[in-house]
Amino acid sequence: MPAPTALIGQPEKRAEPVNVPLPGNSQEDDFLLDAPSNILPDANAIPSATQDVDTEMHIDEEGRPRFAPAKHTDAPTRVETRKVPIPPHRMTPLKASWPKIYPPLVEHLQLQVRMKNRTVELRTSKYTTDTGALQKGEDFVKAFSLGFDVDDAIALLRLDDLYIETFEIKDVKTLQGEHLGRAIGRIAGKDGKTKFAIENASRTRVVLADSKIHILGGFKNIHIAREAIVSLILGSPPGKVYGNLRTVASRMKERF
């Protein structure tokens, strides 16, 4: 009997290929050729961070618990901001000394700093490593706003045992008018000689801002300078204060 011929106008049907399983493998294994289980592990491969780490507690031979090492995860960075107001009479010195002010804050403390609306804004970033960097930066800018030189204020960033103490003349004795002016004159001295003598003897820095007095230095050094200034406010002659400062300076030299 002759084989049936295809009808005119209809496509000829072709025989579909038959999938023959490979010897030793099942039909399902053909779809798992790219699966990780069939790929040989590389001995030099570095384990990825996504692999499961054994976090269970194990007991060693002495009965002590042994924990798996903690995973190193980057904690979220907390951004903190401080604003230091600048008095109007210190804005011009701030603008003139700005090239010397921001490098220690940015390079040494890794802070972000900007000057805006008569304030200096400080902000931490992901590069800030010191937890006390923001406080040190604030103390540095605050010292400059009080009237200290940039070189003296930078010492606050490098040393941890420096402080700033502020008090007014009226805290020691209530003086008004010419009496207040004479007290300020006794502290400053002619051409600032008395103030310089107090600074050199006590190893501090003193700023006279009208009736306010700012002292920068160590704890004991601030105490020495404050005692000398209080004596001048109470009316002691500068010669007597000089003698006391010489005694204190000689004792400090022997101590160190």
UniProtKB/TrEMBL annotation:
Cellular localisation: Nucleus, Nucleolus
Molecular function terms, GO-annotated: RNA binding
Keyword field: Nucleus, RNA-binding
GO cellular component: nucleolus
Gene3D superfamilies: K Homology domain, type 1 (3.30.1370.10)
SUPFAM superfamilies from the UniProt entry: Eukaryotic type KH-domain (KH-domain type I) (SSF54791)
Region (Disordered): 1-29
CDD domains tied to this protein: KH-I_PNO1_rpt1, KH-I_PNO1_rpt2
Functional note: Required for small ribosomal subunit (SSU) synthesis. Has a role in the processing of early nucleolar and late cytoplasmic pre-RNA species.
Family in the record: Belongs to the PNO1 family.
Subunit structure: Component of the small ribosomal subunit, ribosomal RNA processing complex (SSU RRP complex).
Name recorded for this polypeptide: Pre-rRNA-processing protein PNO1
Organism: Amorphotheca resinae ATCC 22711
